[in-house]
Structures are given as structure tokens and as C-alpha cells.
Amino acid sequence: MAFTLQSTDLRDGEKMPNAQVFNGMGYEGENLSPQLSWDNPPAGTKSFAITCYDPDAPTGSGWWHWGVANLPADLRSLPTGAGSGLPGLPAGSVQTRTDFGKAGYGGAAPPQGEHHRYQFTVFALDVATLEVDEQSSGAYLGFNLHFHTLGKAGLTVIYS
Question: May I ask which residue range the UniProt record assigns to the signal sequence (predicted)?
């Protein structure tokens, strides 16, 4: 069976709801991280990490909207808002710094008139913890994920 990622808030390939859109930069979204759940991780999984990345941002290097690591291997879901200060992140998990400059979920906020993709990915890792903290950049988190990923599952939504 395949490692999969689902959401009650997002639909793969469809428009991101206002609940997950940034509140600022000309947008009035709710800035809530989406509910996510995953099934069938690879054998040997010792922890999970989740990222949200916009490859279409006009930066030359995309835009990191969310990073959370050190999620326990027995976890299979996060509730809506867990990355936005609401309950739901397990003890010991770490949210890394986004390109908004702080840790925690930052929703969609593309330049007006642009169409962007938002890639949510859950990574199954071969280590219980990654050496990251709230000041670690998305690129640094991605670098660490590269060396410890057993498998990954994702979904992509759009916003313009």
C-alpha cells in the first residue's frame, strides 16, 4: 500500500480555502494550518516532518510556508490550526522558521494576479529527531530531510 497524505481542509489540485490563506500582505485569510492525515508510512519510520512550499514565488528559490519536524512515528494526523497556535502539535515537535520570518504556519499570499502552487508534503524519516529549531530555515530543514527521508507523500493546492 502507498504512503498517502489526505486533508479534510484541502483537495489535491483544487483552490486553497480562505481558512489557509495568510492574514496580511493584502490578504484577509484565517492563516490556519490545514488538517492533515497520512497512512501507510514505510517500514522503519522513526518520525515525521511536514512542509508547505511554494515553488512559484518570485524569489529564485521559492517560499517556505511551513515546516514542522520531530513528529512521533505513531502520529497519523494533525488537526486544523495545529501549526497556527491552536492545540494539536505533539510535545517535542519543532516548527521551523518560514520565509515570513518566524516559526509556524504562514498561508498563501502570492503577489496579486499570480497563480501559485502550495505543496504540502509529509516525510517519513529514519531518525527520531532532526537537529532543527525555531530559527532553522526551510532550506536547512530541507537539507536535513534529504539525508533522512524513507518516503514522502503530498498534495498540492493552488491559489491566485
Answer: none
| Concatenated DSSP letters of 115-158 | -EEEEEEEEEESSS--S--TT--HHHHHHHHHHHEEEEEEEEEE
pLDDT score for 21:
98
Nearby residues of 157 by Cβ (< 8 Å), 6 or more positions away? 10, 11, 12, 13, 14, 15, 16, 20, 117, 118, 120
Q: Which residues of 138-159 are buried (b: 16+ CB within 10 A; e: fewer)?
A: bebbbebbeebebbbbbbbbeb
Q: How far apart are alpha carbons 115 and 94 in whole angstroms?
A: 30
Domain ranges within the chain, ordered by starting residue: 4-159
Q: Is the dihedral of CA 28, 26, 24, 54 positive or negative?
A: positive
- Which pTM does this prediction carry? 0.98
Fold of 4-159: Phosphatidylethanolamine-binding Protein (3.90.280)
What's the average pLDDT block by block, 10 residues per block, for the chain (160 residues)?
97 98 96 98 98 97 98 98 98 98 98 96 98 98 98 98
CA distances to 54, 74, 113 from 120, rounded to whole Å, are 9, 20, 22
